[in-house]
Amino acid sequence: MEILFATGNEDKLREVRMILRESGITVRSMKEANIRADIQENGKTFEENALIKARTVAAASGMPAMADDSGLEVDCLDKAPGVYSARFLGEDTSYDIKNTWILNRLKGVPDPERTARFVCAIACVFPDGKELICRETMEGRIGYRIEGENGFGYDPIFYLPEFGCTSAQLTPQQKNEISHRGKALRKMRQMLEENRA
Predict the structure, then answer these.
(1) Model's pTM, two decimal places?
(2) Which residues contact 9 (CB under 8 A, 6 or more apart)?
(3) Interval 38-66: pLDDT, tens
(4) How far is it, in rounded angstroms, from Cα 8 to Cα 59?
(5) Model confidence pLDDT, tens digit, residues 99-135
(6) Helix 10-20 × helix 180-196 angle, to 10°
(7) CA-to-CA dists, residue 61 to 5, 122, 142, angstroms
């Protein structure tokens, strides 16, 4: 099975390919398939945004299309940045600035109130109109400093108490085992296999 993945994010694409590698699913990027689509991410939930992206790319390509919408929810910031995680503080704002802003907002906030989670919703849309969707999370809390080189986005401030480090300090293999995206992709892989059967 060949699926187009609706993202321009190379880090995310690498993660997706690593997780789906054993399933016999070939993941192609929009760039590789020469598909350009104007995607309006105006959903109110991660699920809505994932469906918007997958529907748009499936319609533009005539191929099965998969998309994820993922982000960070910080409980004491009313679950911000949430669905705006990628566009938080401005479309082209670096994650160093975003991460520093969150750390500054949480100055003086004690550990029990620093709870946060990464959320990932994945949608797969087929040319015949069939749609599959799932959602997973990775629970943790916001750390006190930017740490780690392995992740991207908000990984360097997302602290995992059970590992004693941030998700940016895990190896890619460790992260894929426990991450919101890893869990959601494995669930989607299972849904696709059941759908094929």
Answers:
(1) 0.91
(2) none
(3) 888 899 999 999 999 999 999 999 999 99
(4) 18
(5) 999 999 999 999 999 999 999 999 999 999 999 999 9
(6) 50
(7) 11, 18, 39
Range of the domain at 186: 2-196
Strand partners, 141: 115, 159
Number of domains within the chain: 1
Determine the residue type at 17: R
E-strand stretches of the chain:
2-5, 26-29, 65-74, 80-81, 115-125, 131-142, 158-160, 165-166
Instruction: Round to whole Å and give the CA distance between 183 and 163.
Output: 17
Helix (H) or strand (E) holding 164: none
Residues involved in catalysis: 69
CATH number at residue 75: 3.90.950.10
